[in-house]
Amino acid sequence: MSRAIVFDTYGGPEVLRTVQVAELTPGPGQVRVRVKAAGVNPIDAKIRGGRLDGRVPVAFPQTLGNEFAGVVDRVGAGPAAYPVGAEVFGFTSMSAYADHVVVGVDQVTAKPAALPWETAAALSAVGQTAYNALRILAVNQGETLLVHAAAGGVGTVAVQLARLLGATVIGTASERNHEYLRSLGATPVVYGPGLTERVRNLAPGGVQAALDCIGADAVRVSLDLVENPGRIGTTADESAADTYGVHRIRYERSAQTLAELARLYCAGKLVLPVAKTFPLEAAADAHHEIETGHVRGKIVLVASG
C-alpha cells in the first residue's frame, strides 16, 4: 500500500485528504516511479474547487498533480528504457500527489544530478507552457515581449527563454518583485490602472507580442499594445481568447522539451525558484498558499521520507 492525496467533493483546500491506495503495477512500456517531489499548480486548485467542472473529467475520489520527480522502482515488460534506480522527472495527468505514479517511458526523462529534486518536480508544467508559448507567439530576436504576471512560474521561465532568444522583455509584477524581474533580465512595470501608457513609455519601438499569465484586464491591455492579435496568448483567460481571437496557450508535453529545459538549467541559463515546499500530507496547506496568487516561482510537495 502507498499514499495518495484525494478529494471526494468539490470545495476548499480542506477537502483534500490522505488515503492508502493499492500498489500500482506498470504495464509494457511503463515504469513505476517512487515520487520524491510533485509540483503544485493553480490548475490543481481550480479543479479541486470545481471551477473546471464539465471541462476536466473528474472521478471521485480524485487525486491531483501533473508533474513529478522521483526514482524508478519497477519497470513493465519489454526493454527497460529506464532501469530500476534511475532518477527521472516527468509529467502525468492528475495523479502525481502520491507516493508512486505509473507513466509511459515517453513521459519521463533522466534527471541530471545538478537539477534539484524540487526544481525538477516544478519544471514540467510552467517550463513547457512557457516554451510552447514563445514558439506559438513566434518571439524573435530584437522584438519586445510583454509578460503579465512575470514573477509567477510560467512568467519566470518565459522571461528567461525570451531573453535567450534575444528579445527585450517587459514584465508586470508588484513592486516587491521588481528586483527579482531585473535579475531575470526583464524590465519590470507595476500592474494596475495606467499600465498601457507605462508600457508604451518603456517600449518606444512598440510591443510585438504579449503573454498573459494572470487574466483580468491583461488581454485588453495587450490588445492596446500589440498590433497583431495572433501574437497575444493567454494561459488564464479563456473567455478573452474566445472573444478576441488571441491564442489560448496549452502546453504540449514531451520528454524532449523537458530534457532541453534541464540542459538550460544545468548550464546556468535558466532558474526556477521554489517558493515553498510542503510534505505530501500537507497538500491542503500548499493549496491555501497557491490560492493567495502571490507565489514567486513554484510550490512543491515533497516525500516525507
Draw up the topology in text.
Blueprint: E1 2-7, E2 17-21, E3 30-40, H1 42-48, E4 62-63, E5 67-75, E6 87-91, E7 100-104, E8 108-110, H2 117-136, E9 144-148, H3 153-164, E10 168-172, H4 178-184, E11 187-189, H5 195-202, E12 209-212, H6 218-225, E13 232-234, H7 238-244, E14 247-248, H8 255-266, E15 274-279, H9 283-290, E16 298-302
Parallel strand pairs: 9-10, 9-12, 10-11, 12-13, 13-14, 15-16
Antiparallel strand pairs: 1-2, 1-4, 3-5, 3-7, 3-16, 5-6, 6-8
**End-to-end C-alpha gap:** 15 Å
Uncertain residue segments: none
Regarding quaternary structure, how should these chains be classified? single chain
Total DSSP E strands: 16
Rg, rounded, reads 19 Å
Q: What is the percent of helical residues?
A: 25-40%
List SSEs in N-to-C order.
EEEHEEEEEHEHEHEHEHEHEHEHE
CATH topology descriptor of the largest domain: Quinone Oxidoreductase, Chain A, domain 1
Into which percentage range does the β-strand content fall? Answer: 25-35%
Question: What class do helices, strands and sheet pairing give?
Answer: alpha/beta
The CATH architecture category of the largest domain equals Alpha-Beta Complex
Number of separate domains: 2
